[in-house]
Predict the structure.
Amino acid sequence: MSLTGGNRNDVTQLLPLLDKVPAVAGVVGRPRRRPDTLFADRDYDHDKYRRLLRQRGICPVIAERGQPHGTGLGTFRWVVERTISWLHGFRRLRIRWERRDDIHEAFLGLAVCLITHRDVQMLC
């Protein structure tokens, strides 16, 4: 995953992110390198990206601009939104103050460890 500035459009990192998806281990046969489906919100509603996803063998499920809500994508997106909300609970990650990428990524990894630890404690 690459770290970009906060004022960059998310759609510019869609294809580089898909290229860095690791192989899925533990399944018999050739490991999958790409997801079957990509769920996205209205920001990704461009014919160019739909075409590029189909060329890679990925079925795009993208909400369309100008259409009313109720597509059902929210049931899949809330997991991502909730995770981002948890990460914003750490003041240091809410606004990126670090100039060096490695320090910011270290704080991000530490936050993920703390969130996971809290979740496991709730299960016990």
User: Anything to note?
Assistant: Helices lie at 14-19, 47-55, 74-88, 91-94, 101-123. The chain has a mean pLDDT of 79. Strands lie at 37-40, 59-62. The two ends are 32 Å apart (CA to CA).
